[in-house]
Amino acid sequence: MARKQARRRRRRKAARFAMPTIRLGRIVAPLAAAGIVVATYHLTIAVLDRTISSIEISGPFQRVTALQIEEAISDEIDEGFVGADLDRIRAEIVALPWIDRARVARRWPNRLSITVTEQVPAAIWGDRGLLNTRGELFVTEARHVPAELPRLSGPEDSSAEVARRYLEVRDRLIPAGLDLNRVHLDARGAWAMTLANGIEVRLGRRDVARRTDLFLDVVADIITGRAADIDYVDMRYGNGFTIGWQSGSETPAGEPAGEGKKLLASRGTE
After folding, report:
1. Are 240 and 196 in contact (CB under 8 A)?
2. Fold (CATH) for 123-264
3. What residue ranges of the chain are covered by domains with CATH 3.40.50.11690?
4. What was the pLDDT predicted at 12?
C-alpha cells in the first residue's frame, strides 16, 4: 500500500513539472505571414521606385531660377520616385538665397511637384543686409538694395529686436499719418528713430518703452501739424521731452529729470 502511494506521488510530481508542448504551426505561420508582408513591401518599392522623369517647379520667380532649384536637388532626385527624401529636398531648396518656403509632393507615376515662395524684403539691415516681413535677416550682402525700404541698424545679432521695435512703432504711427524711415540701436543700447519726414526722435537707453509711448501718445500729434518746422524730438528725460525746431530754437515740455530747464534744453540724459 505504501509503495502504491509513493508511486502515485512520483507520478503527480512528474506531471506537475512537465514542459508544455507547442505546435510548430503556431510559430511558423506568423513568421511566414510577416515574411510575406516584408517581401511584398520590398517588391512594391522596387516596382514603384522608378526614375523621376520630370520636375514641375512653380512660383513667382524674380531672384531665383528653376534651373538653380533643379541643380540644388539633383543628388536627391537620383534616389528615385519613392526613395527621394521630400523633407531633405525641401530643406535644400529653402537653403537657397531668396527662398522663403517650399512645398514638395510626389505626382504619380514618376514626377515631382515643387512650389516655392521667394522672400519679400521689408527693410535694409546695416549697409547691405535685407530683412523679411518677419524681421529675419535672409541676405547679408545684397547686390541690389531697394532705396525705398526703411533702414534698420544695430549690433550684430540684434536684427530681430530692432525689426520688432520698428514694426511696433510703425503700426502706431500710420494711423497718425506718419511713417518710420530709420531705427538705430547703438552699442550702448541707446535707440534713435528717423521719421519719413526727416524728423529725428532720440529715445536713449533708459525707459525706452515708456518714452516711446509718450512720443506716440503726445508728440506724434504735435508733429503731424508742424512737421515742416521740426528738426528733432529728444525724449531722454524723466517726465518730458524737447522739440528742436528748424530755426535752431528748442521748446521744452514737461519736467526734466535733473536740474531744471537748463538741463531740459540741453542734450538731456540717456
Report:
1. no
2. Rossmann fold (3.40.50)
3. 123-264
4. 57
pTM value is: 0.71
**Spatial CA neighbour of 230 closest among 204, 217, 249:** 249
Query: What is the tens place of the pLDDT at every residue in 51-98?
Result: 888 899 998 889 999 999 999 999 888 888 888 899 999 999 999 989
Which cell numbers in the block locate residue 129? 543686409
Looking at domain 54-118, its CATH architecture is Roll (3.10)
Residues 6+ apart with CB under 8 A from 255: 237, 238, 239, 240, 264
> At residue 105, does pLDDT exceed 60?
yes
Asked if 270 contacts 257 with a C-beta cutoff of 8 angstroms, the reply is: no
Residue-wise over 154-171: b if at least 16 C-beta within 10 A, else e? beeeebeebbebbbebbe
Handedness of CA 173, 249, 184, 210 (dihedral sign): negative
| Count, residues in the chain | 270
pLDDT digits (tens, 9 = 90+) for 186-209: 999 999 999 999 999 999 999 999
Residue ranges matching CATH 3.10.20.310 in the chain: 54-118
